[in-house]
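[Automated response] Your request has been received and processed.

Submitted sequence:
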Amino acid sequence: MEEYDYSKEVQLESWPELRPKKKPLSKDKSFKSLDNSALIAEIRQASKNEQDLTLQVIELIAEINRRKTFLKLGFSSLFDFVTKDLGYEPSSAMRRIQAARAISEMPELREKIADKSLSLSVVSQGQNFLNKKASDSGKKISIAEKTELFKKLENKSTREAEKELFKLAPELCLKSKEQEKVLSENLTELRFVIDTETKQKIDELKLWMSHQNPDMTQAQFFKVMVEKLHGQFANKKSVQDKSVQDKSLQGKSVQNKSAREKSNYSKSTDASQVEQDASTAGAEPLSEDSKENSKEKPNPVASEKYPQNKPGPRRSRYISASVKKLVWQRDQGCCQFVDRNSQKKCESRYQIQLDHIVPFRHLGDSSQENLRLLCGKHNRDRD
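Generated structure:
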């Protein structure tokens, strides 16, 4: 009979990590062990939990939008925050943002989303339609009109809701077809709708340029037109900047010239006045040394009666073209707002504005060191 080897037990007691570990059952195996009824119940519960969490995310986005908290974190828009910080895809982010804005105005939509009578896609479609309508008409849409629209979209699929909105205003639905999709690092797909008149003009322009490129595609035509317009705008801007700079230098030279002429005139007037007074009193005309002494030593009685209050330099909000150019080059045309905690810089290029770091009302000057670039939202959000 073979003897039992106790050395193995000693090793297991001394080194517990040598014990064989039991592999935990994966969720796939646990799901595989469920019967059909339990499996259906499990997925229904998971779906409800997911929908509850989605609704909670929408409510949180709505509150963040109300407080504008994303600006404090260095994001120029709510969309940037949801996509870059929360990690949502652009389409998913836009659906949640549109739903958040909708329930902020109409809290009753929350229950409609909760009971699935309105999906996120349909709410996003309706909100986008209302935004287009308000922008096109230039009038604010009333809450009653918005509520009526969402009632028509209840219990409809995305396709059915699209048909319903097209019946109400076909031209707005066509405008909402504009899309931008990033295909790669160097390629972006643009999709938009144009009217017949614009299409005819494009065809005429392509015919006129056919000697350069007989088979010009829409993308090539778009690139040529953009480069031409961009070049014209850049040249116009450089000419304007140079004109402003020349006017500034010309104005400074005129001011310096007038100041010198005024100073020379004042000196000659003082000397002639003293000489005239002396001749009137029957005295001899003043010598050159006497004239110099009379200029250096003003009448103390006159000084006491009419004190010389020298005003300080006049402050102005004017920023020269050269300073604007230096600030723009230094900040690379980007918003310079930085979150103090995460050190995240906004870097938005939308609606860039010059901002005084020390405000002008607090005696901040318009020097290069006291200026920076901010996007419109961060500039308006300054404390």
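Summary generated for your ticket: The first strand starts at residue 179 and ends at 182. The longest helix spans residues 218-280.
If you did not submit this request, please reply to this message.
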